[in-house]
């Protein structure tokens, strides 16, 4: 049983609580978006969507609409700047963007419930940039004719979820720190830990971070010599930089290599549409794709081409395929990891992994 169902049944008798859940699309949505509590501590937290609902519901309660007979529809709404400022003050929220407030939360809700309701959680006025929680989703009518306002229950659920996630993250970072100590004592266990994060079933964010760390130390000993105009030739090491955080609106760039300007994009799927969209974003600039698949690069490329052939002419397809600078899959990353360790970079990789995870998960603010 999920912790949400347990919380509902503590507040309401079992039959009434079950009915409440069954008649509330909002409670069901919160249940779907908090599933990561029962998974790896690294699984996606969905904080943006949850915090959008939380902040607007919190405003609804603070303004007294939960208990008063005032018409919430006449309320002027919460200003965008107030919504995003409050979201960023919540645990894990200091780098949240505006996408959930404007579209993403509602679009995600529709994905699950479009066959059952036309309502969405967030109501907004584009001209005034004011926002409201959808009160219709807070007022739940049970099958027995009773009505419940679940505003405070929603707040309690999200508060509990954050508490559970904090506990999970604490354990995860304690595990990382323990592996840091193991480097000098039992390096094989640390190696196994890093390799495990490259599993196809691992969390997408941790895969992107670990891939970055492996690639960074794979290229760190390599150099390029070039000259500009009449200048003397210069030798520069190859450096890879991570562009923003995972799942960011990065325009198709996850890592970039200096000074070559080589671009890396991480993806989980072999759907050709995803690759071609990234290529279009960068106006057909060559891209190296890091693919979370346990295939050889040749097998991955063959699958992409096979699926795309029925959708494009040979000439157009050739134009797209020329933009695939390289495909790096899990077996290639594992081989790079072995070479990095042979070159003595295990301790640096563990330190880099810890630092990147702290940035990604906003752990220091908790």
The major pleated sheet works out as: 5 strands, mixed
The proportion of residues in beta strands is 5-15%
Helical segment count = 15
Detail the poorly predicted runs: 39-43
Mean pLDDT level: 86
Which radius of gyration do the C-alpha atoms yield?
24 Å
Measured between the Cα atoms of the first and last residue, the distance is: 27 Å
Question: Count the strands?
Answer: 12
Helix content: 40-55%
Shape: globular
**Strand adjacency order, main sheet:** 8-9-10-11-12
* Protein structure class: alpha+beta
Order of H and E elements: HHHHEHHEEHEEHHHEEEEEHEHHEHH
How would you describe this structure to a colleague?
The chain is α+β, with helices and mostly antiparallel strands and 366 residues long. Helices cover 51% and strands 13% of the residues. It has 15 helices and twelve strands. The chain has helices at residues 3-11, 14-22, 25-33, 47-62, 80-89, 99-113, 135-138, 151-182, 187-196, 204-219, 272-281, 297-308, 314-321, 330-342, 346-360, and strands at 78-79, 122-125, 130-133, 139-141, 147-149, 223-226, 234-237, 239-242, 255-258, 262-267, 287-291, 324-328. The strands form four sheets. A five-stranded mixed β-sheet has the order 8-9-10-11-12, with helices on both faces. A three-stranded antiparallel β-sheet has the order 1-3-2. A two-stranded antiparallel sheet has the order 4-5. A hairpin with a 7-residue loop joins strand 6 and strand 7 (234-237). Helix 10 packs antiparallel against helix 15 (346-360). The longest helix is centred in the middle third of the chain and has 32 residues, at 151-182. It is globular, with a radius of gyration of 24 Å. The two termini are 27 Å apart. Mean pLDDT is 86; it is low at 39-43.
